[in-house]
Design a protein that fits this description.
This protein is α/β, with parallel strands linked by helices and 259 residues long. Helix content is 38%, strand content 25%. It has ten helices and ten strands. Bound molecules: adenosine-5'-triphosphate and magnesium ion (MG).
Length: 259
Amino acid sequence: MTKDYRLAVQLVGVVKRYADINAVDHVNLGVKEGEIFGLLGPNGSGKSTLLKMILALVKPDVGSASVLGINAEENPVAIKAQTGYVPEVPRLYEFLTGIEYLDFTADLYGVSTTEKRERINEYLEALELEGREDDMISAYSLGMKQKIALISALVHKPKLLLLDEPLGGLDPRSARIIKDLLRELASEGTTTIMSTHILEIAQAMCDRVAIMYRGKLLATGNMKELREKARLPGSNLEEIFLSLTGTSDIKDVVEALMK
Ligand SMILES: Nc1ncnc2c1ncn2[C@@H]1O[C@H](COP(=O)(O)OP(=O)(O)OP(=O)(O)O)[C@@H](O)[C@H]1O
Ligand SMILES: [Mg+2]
């Protein structure tokens, strides 16, 4: 079979069990280079575990993961070096200033001083943190911490970006800025995989979405394809969609994303 695209991530039959829970249950997934891909599923459906598996932080019990053409089992460090990851609850060094933390992260990734300065300044400006970079992280708001975590995942210009619920704590304007930033990165070839439990966020931000439920991928496609599948008789996607519908407190964020 010939393909006119390359896969940034290819998971084949991956399984991760915790005691009697199948956190990830025989998942097959291909994410194309330059795609913004959404993992959509309710709490506990396995989104975070799957993202950690792609980062080679969690090793599958069964199956194989190839990330950026690298076998996750053979060379997990090479995957981490080319990937940016923002966990659900980013743990930052709160006693550092924003700029100290970003400098430190860039140094860990071996980014040159010139590139580091340029990139950090560019992102501080884009995310409207300019002027606050010398404050201690402990004095930042939740949204500001989220933004610092995102910049720290971008300082080494990763080929793959893994974002676990990236819009938590962000106001509509910031959500919109991040959406535009991810789109710009995608046009340069960066692949993004993000998790969300909010249908409208997946719809507004992602090229394709996989619906995850109890560790399994129920369906993969763009929103139009998924909506069509949901109408199929015998499909339980309708039910899943219902359980994923956004709550009113994210209405403003979703409106900003849809502009
Ligand atoms: N380290 C762990 N030890 C034991 N069980 C775990 C561990 N990590 C995840 N699980 C279990 O695996 C399942 C999937 O968890 P996961 O965090 O991947 O879900 P999620 O889709 O990210 O949920 P949420 O939307 O709440 O973030 C859950 O039942 C969870 O309790
Ligand atoms: Mg999670």
